[in-house]
Amino acid sequence: MSILGKTEELRFEYENLNDDNNHNRKHITYYQLLKSSILDEITRQRDMHQRLQLEVDELKMQKQLSTQAYEADTQVDFEKIFFVYKFYFIF
After folding, report:
1. What residues have CB less than 8 Å from 9, skipping those under 6 apart?
2. CA 17, 22, 26: angle at the middle one, nearest 5?
3. What is the spatial distance between Cα 90 and Cα 33, in angstroms, rounded to a whole number?
4. How far is CA 44 from the centre of its chain?
C-alpha cells in the first residue's frame, strides 16, 4: 500500500472517529437534558406530595377538633339533662 493510500485511509478513520465523537457528544447532551428533566419532575412531584400531606394533616386536625367539640357539647348536654333530672326529683 502506498503512502498516499495509507494517508487517505488514516484520514477516513480520523473523520469517522470525529463523527463518532460528535455523535457521542450529542447523546451525552441528550441524556443530560433527560436526566435534568427527570430530576425536575421528581422535585415537582415531591413538592406536590408535601403540599398534599400538609392538607391531609390540616384536615386530620380539623376532624380531631370537630370531634372534640362534639364530645364537649355532648358532655355539656348530658350534664344539663342530669341536672334537670336531679332537680326534678329533688322537688
Report:
1. 1
2. 145
3. 85
4. 6
* Cell numbers that stand for 62 in this block: 380539623
Residue-wise DSSP of 12-25: HHHHHHHHHHHHHH
Long-range contacts of 11-15 (CB under 8 A, 24+ apart): none
CA atoms within 13 A on the CB side of 15: 6
Q: What is the pLDDT of residues 12-71, one digit of tens each?
A: 888 888 888 999 999 999 999 999 999 999 999 999 999 999 999 999 999 999 999 888
Cell 358532655: give the residue: 75
Write out pLDDT tens, residues 59-91.
999 999 999 988 887 776 666 666 666 666 665
